[in-house]
Amino acid sequence: MVKAIRISKTGGPEVMEYVDVEVGEPGPGEVRIKHHACGLNFIDVYFRTGLYPQPLPAGLGQEAAGEIISVGAGVHNFKAGDRVTYCGRPNGAYSEERLLPAALLIKLPDAISYDTAAAMTLQGLTAQYLFRQTFPLKGGETILFHAAAGGVGLIAAQWARALGVKMIGTVSTPEKAALAKAAGCTHVINYKTENFVERVKEITDGKGVPVVYDSIGKDTFIGSLDCLSPLGTMVSFGNASGAVPPFSLNELASRGSLFITRPSLPAYVATREALDAAAADLFQMVESGKIKIEINQRYALKDVAQAHIALESRNTTGSTILIP
């Protein structure tokens, strides 16, 4: 038996239980992995609260790094002893060991530790698809990125700097502003004390930005549209403040024929080739030193409720990992 986090109902952090589970042997196309570190991401909160439904009882967590213990039939690209990382469904990364499809796995370079991998795989691949695929940045653009001191935000700020992109980041405290600025934001807006729409217009001389990357959702959606220049693109990739309410398509037309997309990582890494290419891009940026992963919070797996409380209260910066 190994320890894992399970939920039998949706709700607050208290619904997560630290229990014994039986893992079993891997079936065809599966591996059994021993986790050295597990990642914490806002999507885990969505599943815990029921915003994203799943059959119950269920596990939580979509990201971890560790060592393969055994492989099932038909698994040829991985073997016992391989260092790997992964992110994505099925949920269940909050565990000491688990079974999962080998198709999710990414081989981990020796230069990247388990802790770093668990802190960056989902967030780093998110930054990769946002900047390199959803709205490919060429350099020279000025962009708006919300939650710039979060895990994705700090990676994005460094990536933007490396690309020669001026990133305007929004944050909620002076401390977070300092972190975002140090990571590479050209401009930082404290949305608690400043109107981010007015500040973006000031920074861009009234032109607006060609793209907004928004993981906040309900609270920032309309304001984000107002920051875009005509023909600009709204990338809504999260719901930290709640789901975006229904809106009229005229909201896009009246602001200059805007584009909008609601991307998700699985669609961008749906094939082995796409996953390996995105991961190689991310690993190269980290190994070169252009991106440094900030692990600013560590919790024992059994203390995951505390980690969720801190995350939902927006009291975290950078990445948070759970140690089994």
Q: How many β-strand runs?
A: 16
Largest sheet: 7 strands, mixed
The fourth-level CATH homologous superfamily of the largest domain is Medium-chain alcohol dehydrogenases, catalytic domain
Please state roughly what percent of the residues sit in beta strands, choosing from under 5%, 5-15%, 15-25%, 25-35%, 35-45% or over 45%.
25-35%
Please state the average pLDDT score. Answer: 95
Q: How many discrete structural domains?
A: 2
The first-level CATH class name of the largest domain: Alpha Beta
Order of helix and strand elements from N to C terminus:
EEEHEEEEEHEHEHEHEHEHEHHEHE
Total helical segments: 10
Radius of gyration from CA coordinates? 20 Å
Overall shape: globular
Structural class: alpha/beta
Cα separation of the termini: 14 Å
CATH topology label of the largest domain: Quinone Oxidoreductase, Chain A, domain 1
**What percentage of residues falls in helices of 4 or more residues?**
25-40%
CATH architecture of the largest domain: Alpha-Beta Complex
Question: Could you walk me through the main structural features you see in this protein, from its secondary elements to its overall organization?
Answer:
This protein has 324 residues and is an alpha/beta fold. It folds into 2 domains: 2-120 and 281-323, Medium-chain alcohol dehydrogenases, catalytic domain (Quinone Oxidoreductase, Chain A, domain 1); 139-262, NAD(P)-binding Rossmann-like Domain (Rossmann fold, 3-Layer(aba) Sandwich), CATH 3.40.50. 31% of the residues lie in helices and 27% in strands. α2 (114-134) packs across α3, α2 (114-134) packs across α9 (272-287) and α3 runs parallel beside α4 (174-183). The radius of gyration is 20 Å and the shape is globular.
